Amino acid sequence: MPSIRVNGFDMHYQVVGHGPPLVCITGWGTGAGHGFAAYPRQLADNYQIIFYDHRGVGASSGGLDREPSTELYADDVAQLITALGLPAAHVFGRGGLGGCITQRLAIQHPDLVSSAILGQSWAFADATLDAQLMALAALRRISFEDFQRACAWLCYDPQYFEHHQQALLGPDGSWSDIKDTPEAHLALIQASRTHDAREDLHTMSCPTLVIQAGANDWITGARLGDEISRRLPGSEMLYLSDAPHAVSTHAPSWALYTDALMRFLALAAQEPQ
User: Fold this and answer.
1) What tens digit of pLDDT does each residue of 201-234 get?
2) CB burial of residue 185 (10 Å; 0-12, 13-18, 19+)
3) Which of 121, 19, 11, 122 has its CA nearest to residue 56?
4) Distance from the first to the final alpha carbon of the chain
5) What pLDDT sits at residue 35?
6) Average of per-residue pLDDT across 106-112
7) Domains and their CATH numbers in the chain
C-alpha cells in the first residue's frame, strides 16, 4: 500500500478501478482500511477510486501536532490530489465529517474539485449536534467500548442493531480501526465540532449533491441537510426519509443512494470544466 508525503505527514492511500478520478473522504475512521465497505461497488466499474487515511489514523503517520480543523484536513486532500498529478477530481465525502471536509476542499481549492458529494454533513454543528459530539468525545476519553456502544445505537436502526449487535460491538466491531488511535480520533471529533462553512458555502461553484437522511438518522437529521441546501441553492438534494445514519445497512435507502450517486456523477462528468 503506497504512502505519499503531504502537508507534513505520510499519507497512506489506495487506488482502485479505472476511469475519471474520484477521491473518497471518510468520517471517523480509516478510508483505505475500509475499502468499499461503505461505498457502492459500482463506482469501481466507472471511476478510479482514491481512498486515504486521515492524519494519524490507520497507516497514515503523525500529523497530530497541528490544530485539527476541516480546513486542515481539506488541505491534506488538496495536496494528495496535486501530488498524484491529477488536475482535478470528483470528491465524495461521507460519514458526516467527510462531507464537511469536502465542503472546505471545494471552497479553498475550487480548481481541484470537479463535483462534490456531501454525505450527511452539516454547514455547522448546531447546539444539538455539538452536544452529541461533546458527549461522544467524553465517552471516548473514558472508554472506547462505551463510545462504540453509544455511537452504534445512534448510527444503526433498532432492528438492525438487534440482529447484528455482536458484530457491531467488541474489538472487531464498528470503529475498531481507530480503537488504538484515540488522539487522532479526538482530533476528528474536534474538527467536526468546529466546522462552520455557513458564510462560504455560496462560493462553491461545482455540481454538488447533498445527501441527507430523515428522522431515523439520530445524528445528522434532515435539519442539517436543509441548512446546506438553503445556502447552496444550485445543489441537488437526495433525501432518504427512512435511512439511519449508516445508510448502507438499510437496503431500500441504499438502492436509492446508489442510483442517485451514479446518475449524479455521470451528469457531472458531462459538465464543462
Assistant:
1) 999 999 999 999 988 999 888 899 899 999 998 9
2) buried
3) 11
4) 31
5) 55
6) 98
7) 3-124+198-269 (3.40.50.1820)
Instruction: Return d(Cα 160, Cα 158) in angstroms, integer.
Output: 6
pLDDT tens profile 14-48: 999 899 999 999 999 887 766 556 688 888 889 99
User: CA angle at residue 166 from 164 to 172, to 5 degrees?
Assistant: 110
Q: Average pLDDT for residues 118-132, to the nearest whole number?
A: 96
pLDDT of residue 37: 61
pLDDT at residue number 33: 65
Burial-class residue 158 by CB neighbours within 10 Å (0-12, 13-18, 19+).
exposed
Concatenated DSSP letters for the chain? --EEEETTEEEEEEEESSSSEEEEE-SSSBHHHHTTTTS-TTHHHHSEEEEEBPTTSTT-B---SS---HHHHHHHHHHHHHHTT-S-EEEEE-TTHHHHHHHHHHHH-GGGEEEEEEES--SB--HHHHHHHHHHHHHHHH-HHHHHHHHHHHHS-HHHHHHHHHHHSSTTSTTGGGTT-HHHHHHHHHHHHH-B-TTTGGG--S-EEEEEE-TT-SSS-HHHHHHHHHH-TT-EEEEETT--SSGGGSHHHHHHHHHHHHHHHHHHHTS--
- Adjacent-strand bridge partners of 24: 92
Model confidence, pTM: 0.95
In order of 29, 46, 159, the CA distances from 94 in angstroms are 11, 19, 23
Q: What is d(CA 188, CA 72) in angstroms, rounded to the nearest whole number?
A: 11
